[in-house]
Amino acid sequence: MDKILFSFADLSVKDKAAKEAAKYFSRAGAHVVQQDVSTAAKRAAGISFREMTLTFADSQKVILRIKQTGDIYQVLLNGKILPIKNQDDHVQAISEIVAAMDAGRTKFQKLLAAVKIRPPAGIRTAAPKMEQVLISKRDALKVAISEVRAEIEKLNQGMVPS
Fold it and tell me: Taking the alpha carbons of 105, 103, 6, 74 in that order, is the dihedral positive or negative?
C-alpha cells in the first residue's frame, strides 16, 4: 500500500509528497503542467484543509484537499467532487482520478470550446474603427468619381459641334 503523506504546515509545490503526487499522475498518463498550493487553510464541515491544485496538459484541474493529518480528504475534478474508492492507497486513487479525467475529457473539451471569451473592457478591437475609416474612404471616392464624371461630361459637351 503506497501512502503519500503531505506535511500540512510546510505544504508547497516543492514538498516531497507534492512532487511524488505529480510523478504518480505522470506515470498514470496525465501530465501536470502547473501545480499550486493555497497558502491559507480553509474550513468546511468542521474540517480544516489546504488545497493543492494540479492543472494538466488538457486544461483539466484536480484539487486535492489535504487535512491537517496530511491525508487527502476530498478530491475535486474540474470543480466537482469526485468520490474515490481506494482512499488509503494513493497510487490507486490517482489511477481512479486519471480514469475519470479520461472518461470526461471529450465533454470537458466541448464545454471549453463553447465558452465565449470577451476581451477585457479596456481593450478595444480595431474592427469598428476600421469599418468607419473604410466607409469614409468609399464615400470620398464616390464624390471624386462623380466630380470626374461631371468634368468628362463638360468636356464632351464642349467638343460637340453646335
Answer: positive
